Structures are given as structure tokens and as C-alpha cells.
Amino acid sequence: MRLRPTLLLGAALLTLVTTVAACGGSDSGGSSSAAFDPKNCQGGTLTVLNESGLAKFDPATLYTSGGGALPSLVYRTLTTRKRVAGEAGTTPVPDLATDLGTPSDDAKTWKYTLKDGLKFDDGTPIGSKDVKYGIQRSFSPDLPGGAPYLHDWLIGGADYKGPYNGGDLESIETPDNRTIIFKLRQPHGDFPYLATATQFAPVPKAKDTGTKYQNAPVSSGPYKVEKYEQGKKLILTRNTHWSRAVDDQRLACPDRIEVTSGLEPTVINQRLVSGSGADAKAITTDANVGPEQLARLGSDPSLSKRVSRGVFGETKYLAFDTTKKPFDDVRVRQAVAYAINRQSVINAVGGSSLASPATTFLPEGKAFGQQRYDYFPAGETGDPAKARELLKQAGYAGGLAVELAFPNYDGDGYGPKVAAAVQDALKQAGITVKPKSLSEEDYRTVTGKPATQPPLSLQSWGADWPAGGPFLIPIFDGRQILKEGGNYNLAQLNDPAVNKEIDEINKITDAAQAAPRWGALDAEIGKQALLVPLYHPKTVALFGKGVKNAYVDEWRGWYDVASVSVK
Questions:
Q1: DSSP character string of 259-292
Q2: Distance CA 438, CA 61 (A)
Q3: Beta pairing partners, 433
Q4: 539 pairs with which residues across the strands?
Q5: Which CATH class, in words, describes the domain spanning 314-539?
Q6: Residue 64's pLDDT is what?
Q7: C-alpha angle with apex 540: 536 to 541, nearest 5 degrees?
């Protein structure tokens, strides 16, 4: 699972402020009449103002493209997201590799060939063994936190503990210095998407310093780390051994990028609005505009020109534990679905500029294959009468009381404010909600363990890559249920037909063919009312008046820092 940076990686329809340039960006600078020229965009210092991030910067411990777009400025991977605005930006493209990989054996084997001329920031060549070593170290217990897919997908991955004790993962083969082959336990047509994860970044074994590596990593991207203060500061300068001749996806316009983390969103937005000093050439990769700025957008044309809008493939929802009463009865689950007032939920998170109502689990967009459905139509404000009718059929004519768990922090978009909106809506239907607020630190631990999981909880799911698989598999595949903790299949669904369809879709290596199958599966599962979709978040982000080509990409739902330039 990937969470939004400020909310906790996606694709859906994107609205850009300005016209997309041929290079794949947009002249979003607003205050300049000069068009953005990707051939002449070098120079200057870009400032990045963030709320979160920078807690980790080791490619092994980052979760997919965690930390926004920043890691991909230092770490190249076998594949990467296509660096363009719009729907085309939801597809993977080759990065270190010459292509998206050659599948065989029903997508259980994937072969990649590295490009010529690849170099680390010290000038040494990058080879297939460097990529393998980078992947292997991500299995080390000393470097936790990365995406779990390789542990599950690679043969022997579940028991492998990394290379520090001399072990070798035999399911990754390097027959020569440019070839790397992956042997998987089961078919996975999405492997080219997974190969964008930072775990696929090459690491030279001779320069691996273990847990200290993030302080001075060896770069394969356009920038190298000059300074890293965990959780606070990151300064990037040019890697002189990188060039666009070997990397056609990263424009890498600024000479220097200075990132500050740990700022309050209100402070970030105030600094971006005022744009004094270095803040004139600043962006954020995790702070949506606040109420004050939203109110000004309609009346302040100059500010409106410095906003980009988009979405991240994410759904906020109510989760049922269908093994616990009263939610073992589908009529009770349906009653909750009818009772929900989505308009009040959207108002709680800032209004329609920042959220759109959801009746499907999959977000909008061709990449996900969403098929529109609304099996329990309640309109914008809910249907408490229909909910009461269903409760009566289920034997709860006098209503019932339920506990609702939620994190005690509103920044992720499913905290106390949303819980209050849900509580009020259910009250209208005769359902009394007992709020159960948990700390951010405890929330995933409690809700992710079946033995401690509350019957009803607020949850969020975001796309690790823009496709239906990483949305549906963790939530609905019965073989993904983890009794000891870390479980995301909160409904505890274990339907052989669903599991079989997941396996069949996983064999498909053409994303365009797989997408409608994922959409159809979502539509079929939705009939069981295993969860109640609430809303899909939107991004509305400011950028400084001296920033150009700041567009929100459709993979992660934030600015693509690799494409931004400063005046």
C-alpha cells in the first residue's frame, strides 16, 4: 500500500492549468510569457517545501516511489514512469533497461538487458550485478520498510534475509554484465510496473555501508546527495556522469535542489503564496492548498495561474470485518452503504475541490479499468429510510450500536472530521456510533491484525502503481490474509472464484487487456458490500512564481520534480 505524502502511491483524469508542451510538461509558470524550452532549462536552485518525507532515503527502505518524486532524482531503476502529463503518464517506460522486459513461462520469468553507457556518480559502470545487489539488500532485516512485492513474488524470496551474511538469491540471475533475469513463484504481468520501485536501483557492493548508506548513497540519476539530515533536509547537486543521452525521462533542469521537510501545511502554502526570496522558486510535493488559498483562487487570477490540479489513485472507505457481528449480515452492511452522506464527508475534508464522491473501490481512469457502479444508491446525502428498512429486515428494528475506529489525525483524510460526518449520517438511520480514536502509530497495528481489528473502521488505499491489481489483490485476495498482523484484507474475504480470477488476470502482460478485467472484478466484488467507498482525493498544489513546467503527474498525483525548471 502506498499512502499519499500528506494523506498516505496512481492515475485518473488530470486537469492541468495550462497546455501540455510537446516535451510532456506545461508552461505553468504563469508570470512569464516565455514558453518552456526543455533544451534550454538548465540552471538555478529549486526549493521543495514539504510536510513529511525524508525519514528514509535508502533505496532499499523506500516504499515504491516513497518520498514523492525525490528518490528518482538519485536512483534510476530498470523501468520508470513515463514523464509526461495526462493519461500517457500512467505507463511504465524503460529506464536502466533497454525495454520493459521480456516475459516467458506465463509471465513467471522476466528478462532485462541494461543500456550501454550507464555510470554511477563516481564514473564507474553500472552492471547487472549492481542491480541484483541493490535488490538483495532490500531483503535485509536491517533495512525494513520497502515494498513487500519482491518478497512475495520471487522464488525463495519469503525466506531470504539479504546478502550481508553472504547469501545469494538464486531466483535473480545475472548471466552477463548487462543481463538480469527474475524467476517468479507465480505469473505477474505487472512486473514492469514493479520494476519502477527504488529496490531496483543499482548499488555497488563495495560502497554499501548498510544502515548508513542513505547518508551518502551512490547516485545513478541526474543528482547526487550533497547533504542529508534525516527527516529534515536534503540537498541535491548535479551528477556530472549523468546525461540526457542515457536518460530520456528526466529533464533535470535545476543545478541544485534543496528540500526542507517537517513544515506545517499552512506555513508551506503561505510561503508559496508570498514567494519571497528562494520561495519564488519553490514547490511542494505533499501539501494541498488550504482553505484560505482555495477561497482566493476564484478572485485572484495571478494565484490561480500558480496552481496545478490532479488526482492520485486512492480511495477513502469504510471497512467491515465481515466475520464479526453485526457486519456478518450483508443487510447491515448494505444499510450502512445507504446511510452514508458522502456530501458531508467531502465537506469534512475541504469540499469538492479536494475530493470527489466514490461508489466504486477502483478510482477513475483507464489505467485502473474502473467500471462505474452504485449498487446502493443513496444520492449525495444518503438514504436513511432505506437503511432503516434493511436494518429491520436484519432484526434491528430498534437500531443498533457499533464502534467506529479511526486515526486521531485529520491530515490523512480519514480522521476525526470524517468520522464525525459518518457518525452523524449513521445516526439518521438509527445506528449509534461509538467513536474509537487511535494514534497514528497504533492504527495500522490494531486494524491490521484480525484478532484486534474493529468491526468497522475508516481506511485509505492508494495505488503502488496505476493498475487494478495493486488495488484489488491486497484488499480482496483471500491468500493475502495475514493473521499475525499487517493484514489489509479487512473483510477477510476468501472467495475461490475471486482468487482464481486474480490469478488469471496476473498472467496478462498487456496492461490494456488486463485493465477491463480488473474493473469487472471490482464491479462483481462490489455487490457484496464488503466496504463502503467514500471519496477519491484530489490534488490542488501551489508553486512559486519563478517555477516553470510544474505539472501534476498521473502516476503519483504530485509534481514531477524531474521535469520542473526555475526561471
A1: EE-S--HHHHHHHHHH--GGGGGEE-SS----HH
A2: 26
A3: 402
A4: 310
A5: alpha beta
A6: 56
A7: 135
Q: What is the pLDDT of residue 68?
A: 56
Report whether 358 contacts 534 (CB < 8 A).
Answer: yes
pLDDT of residue 18: 30
Q: Looking at residue 12, what is its pLDDT?
A: 31
* Superfamily designation of domain 45-259+543-566: Periplasmic binding protein-like II (3.40.190.10)
Q: Spell out, as residue ranges, where the chain has pLDDT lower than 70.
A: 1-34, 64-68
Nearest to 230 by CA among 434, 61, 417: 61
Q: Exposed/middle/buried for 519, CB within 10 Å: 0-12, 13-18, 19+? A: buried
Spatial CB neighbours of 243, under 8 Å, sequence gap ≥ 6: none
User: At which residue does the C-alpha cell 541526474 appear?
Assistant: 222
421 contacts 344 by C-beta, under 8 angstroms: yes
Q: β-strand 109-113 against 431-438: which pairing, if any?
A: unpaired
Same fold yes or no, 45-259+543-566 and 314-539: no
pLDDT of residue 291: 82
Nine-digit cell string for 258: 534543496
pLDDT at residue 516 in the model: 97
Say what the pLDDT of residue 87 is.
87
Residue found by looking up cell 548535479 in the block: 238
Q: What is the pTM (predicted TM-score) of this model?
A: 0.89
CB atoms within 10 A of CB 500: 10
C-alpha count within 13 angstroms, C-beta hemisphere, residue 40 = 4
442-480 burial: b if 16+ Cβ within 10 Å, else e: ebbebbbebeebbbbbbbbbbbbbbbbbbbbbbbbbeeb
